[in-house]
Amino acid sequence: MNSEQPDGPGRDRPETRDAAEEPEARGTPVGRRVLLGTLGLGALGVVAAPTLQRGLEAFLGSAADKDPTGLTGLLPNGGGFRYYSVASSVPRKNADTYQLTVDGLVDTPRTYSLADLRALPQTRMVKDVQCVTGWRVPGTPFEGVRLSRLLDAAGVRPTAGAVRFTCFDGTYTESLTLEQARRADVLVALRMQDKNLSHSHGGPVRLYVAPMYFYKSAKWLSGITLTEDVRPGYWEKRGYDIDAWVGRSNGRDDEPTS
């Protein structure tokens, strides 16, 4: 996990000493050239850190695309996120090839291109991201179209009670009740951390359900289908809670994200 654990009950703290207890001999003095060289390396590290971090995140994201085991999620990553995929590979979509369908129990099925979604009013929110496996990324900006806007445009029929989400990895699915889907903090997200969604983060379009554990925020979103009842998604069929409120489900007591 990429989080620093503060001192707390049960944690060992270093012993404190008065200055008189310190031995006079403090080792061999550091030469001027060594000192300057060390400072130079430190400065280089500060300058190079963002580039190295982006490279590491890109590598982990690419590796995760080819790792259905999820083991790449155990590798250190200073960005705080872990990269998971349940498919052996995921095709890449761009502005020319991406489509999002809204169908099922609606009056007017719709198909959106990436340009169509970008042309709609955008909502930006900044919330913590909490994974059910324990890691948390605080203050993460997401931006996109409120899911409720797409539902209203399609005309939800009275018999509809839930929404099923499918993904262009061909494997992952998710679901929400219709009431949950209409919340103001549920987005069809196009941007994350003030950048267009990268492929490894589920781009070009993903679901973002701010108050729920991150597995509900399906990556590589391609389909929104209105159904009568909730249909358990990929992880729900494997034991995760369907209603995945942060801190109130899955046997966890995390702080809420909203």
UniProtKB/TrEMBL annotation:
<dbReference type="InterPro" id="IPR036374">
    <property type="entry name" value="OxRdtase_Mopterin-bd_sf"/>
</dbReference>
<protein>
    <submittedName>
        <fullName>Oxidoreductase</fullName>
    </submittedName>
</protein>
<feature type="region of interest" description="Disordered">
    <location>
        <begin position="1"/>
        <end position="31"/>
    </location>
</feature>
<dbReference type="InterPro" id="IPR006311">
    <property type="entry name" value="TAT_signal"/>
</dbReference>
<dbReference type="Pfam" id="PF00174">
    <property type="entry name" value="Oxidored_molyb"/>
</dbReference>
<feature type="domain" description="Oxidoreductase molybdopterin-binding">
    <location>
        <begin position="89"/>
        <end position="235"/>
    </location>
</feature>
<dbReference type="InterPro" id="IPR000572">
    <property type="entry name" value="OxRdtase_Mopterin-bd_dom"/>
</dbReference>
<feature type="compositionally biased region" description="Basic and acidic residues">
    <location>
        <begin position="9"/>
        <end position="25"/>
    </location>
</feature>
